[in-house]
Structures are given as structure tokens and as C-alpha cells.
Amino acid sequence: MTLSRITILLGVTMLLGHSAEVHAQVRLEATETFPEPFSRVVGVRELSDGRLIVADRLELHVSYLDFATGSITQISREGEGPGEYGQPLGLFAYPDDATLLTDIGNMRIAHIDKNGMIEETWPMMQQGDDGAMSFLRPTATDERGMVYYSGLGISIRTQGGGSFTRPDSSYIMRLDLKNGPADTVAALFREPTTTGTGSVTTGGGGTFSMTRGMLRPFSAADGWAVAPDGRVAVARSLGYRVDWYDSDGTVSVGSSVSYEPVRVRRAEKEQWADGQASNSVVMMIGGGGGGGSRSAQLPRPDLDEVEFPEVMPPFGRSAVSVSPRGNVWVRLNRRANSDGPLFDIFDANGQKTMQVALPANRQLVGFGADVIYAVAVDEDDLQWLEKYPYP
């Protein structure tokens, strides 16, 4: 274990407008590294006793992890039956030290109790009163157990093929899984995009496929996250700021802040294409008793056939998090091959307070009561889970 060290850099960030206020940039360094690597961490959930639940999408494992002893113990097992899971995609805190697992392999949300038992599940495909199907993929939970989600990036359509256009808005929805129905929290903006990646069909026997196509590169879209008390933070991509939505519907609009737009050069295009090739998946879901899904990598995009903007928006997809302390972390878009991720930190009033930098080849994966969790990606693409101090 290395000594905890936080270095205050001399770099500063200016607020937009006439203010001369400056903000320090804080660089964090790891205090601990777990001795066993992972393949693709998609969820980290800290329990009240300090242990973690970690989900690995490629290894198809959901496990207890203990930094103090270096032990790791798998929870349940892969499968389609009761008490099993297929492919994990996310972990979320739930009351009584329980955890919600997004099981994309079985297209269901699983409730893992404090003893590591899967007690109850809910389907991710939900049918409304009008017969239309909607896709419930949790993005966050609060301390009451409410689940928050949106429909961004998901399209379901009938047989046909060709291109389709996604709308320029969506909504954050809040749902009590046991009682329902969902209510609307806030509207989100996204640049309308058109894609022809894959197709979605329906056929006899209730079988259909669902394809997540590639978004237009570096398209502007609002990001959001939820505080433990249920307040929702929305980072606005246009007029960059953070707005807070209280549970009673009150909205607190934050102050716009400046950022230095990143020009899209060849290096940024190549990095984007590499990411699309490794992250895009096609999910095939069989109805009529089969169920489940399968994943496959899509071909690397041909850069000559892709239209890129001149500059990036301030942040990209899945760039917004809220820590247990109520601060909003917004991961900024950076030039290709930059030193490491850089975050703007906002307080409970939507005011920017500082910037935080992590070392190169790190990815923020979660927060604990007193620490931050990130993974370091090595040259073999293995991921090593690390602890960092709060700034």
C-alpha cells in the first residue's frame, strides 16, 4: 500500500462570464490496489461493512470482494434459472444492504439480499397499457429504493430495416419496482441522430431482436445522476451547467461554466472508432420461453464514411456521477492520448468547486462512503481495482 497523496496542481479553471474566480485542480493517487485483476468491471457497490460487490461483464461473475483480506467470492452462478444470472451490466444500492443487479443476459433486474441470495427479479421489457413495449435499464437508485432510468440509446421497431431517427429529447423516469407506476422527473436533450446499424424485427412466437446502434460521433447530450436522497443532477451539454431536481419537483438551475472545446483531429477519430468496435453490442432476446441475450462486437467503423463535428461537446455519454457526499462529477471530453480522465466537480447548488484528475488509463467505476473506486487498465487490457481518497 502506498501513502495517500493528493497533489494540488497549479492549473486552474476559469468560470464563464465576468467572474475572475479560479478553481484548483486536484490530482488523486491510489492508496490500494486489489491483488486480483478483472476483465470488464461494470459495477461496484460498497456495503455497510466495507466489502464490495463487483460485477465483471466478460467473466460473467458477480462477487464479494474484501480489500482487507484480498479475498473474492462469487455470488450465485451463471445461468437462466432462479437465483442465477446471465450477463451482468450494472449494480445499484438498494435498502437493507441489498443490491440490484442489471442482468442483461436474462433481460431481468435481480434483487440480491444482504446475504448474497437472489430473492426476486423483474423483467427489463415492460408492456404498457397501450401494448407498447419499453426497455427498463436502471441508471441509478436512491436510498428509498426508487429506480431511475431513461430510454436514451434504445430503439425497438418492427421488421423493415433501413435507417431510423432518434428524437432530440427523452425523459428521466423514476419507478418503484414493487408498486409502480413510473413518474417523470426531468427532460433531457440530445442531438437528433440517424443510424442504420443493424435492424430490429418482430416475428411469430414473440421473438424479436434489439440492436443498439452507434451514435453520431461526439453528439451533444445531457447527462444525469442521482444523489442518495433522491435529488437528480442533470448536466446540460448546451450552455454547460448542472441543474438539480428535488423530489418535490423544485428545480435549481446552476451557473454556466466555461470549458475549452476539444477539436476533433485524426487521433480523436481513431480513438472513437476503436471504442465503437470494442463496446457496441447486439442483444438478441427470444420470447416464448427461451429468453436471454447474446453479445457480439460490431465491425470497426470506416472513418471515411462517418461525419464528425469540428469540436466535441464538454462531456460524453455516461459522464455524470453523484458521490455519496452529494457532489456531481462530470468527466470532461479530452484530446486523444491525454494523461488521464479529468472531472469538473459541482456542489449541491450546481456551483463548480474544483477539478479532479486521475492517472492515465484509469476509469472511475464507483464511490464508497470514504473512498473512490477506479480501475487501472494495463497493456493486456486487464483491469485492476484501486482505491482513491476523496479530494
Characteristics of this structure?
single chain, four-stranded antiparallel beta sheet, disordered N terminus, mainly beta, 391 residues, globular, 32 strands
What this model shows, in words?
With 391 residues, the protein is mainly β. Helix content is 4%, strand content 41%. The strands form 9 sheets. Strands 1-2-29-28-27-26 form a 6-stranded mixed beta sheet, with no helix packed on it. A 4-stranded antiparallel beta sheet has the order 3-32-31-30, with no helix packed on it. It contains 1 helix and 32 strands. It starts with 5 loop residues before the first strand and ends with a strand.
- Secondary structure class reads mainly beta
Q: How many strands appear in the DSSP assignment? A: 32
Strand content: 35-45%
Q: Name the poorly predicted regions.
A: 1-20, 152-167, 194-213, 282-293
* Largest sheet properties: 6 strands, mixed
Q: What characteristic shape results from the CA principal axes?
A: globular
Mean pLDDT: 82
If strands are numbered along the chain, what order do they take across the biggest sheet? Answer: 1-2-29-28-27-26
- Percent helix among the residues? under 10%
Number of helices: 1
As a whole number of angstroms, the C-alpha radius of gyration is 21 Å
Q: Report how far the terminal alpha carbons are from each other.
A: 19 Å
Provide a compact summary of the structure:
This protein has 391 residues and is mainly β. The protein contains 1 helix and 32 strands.
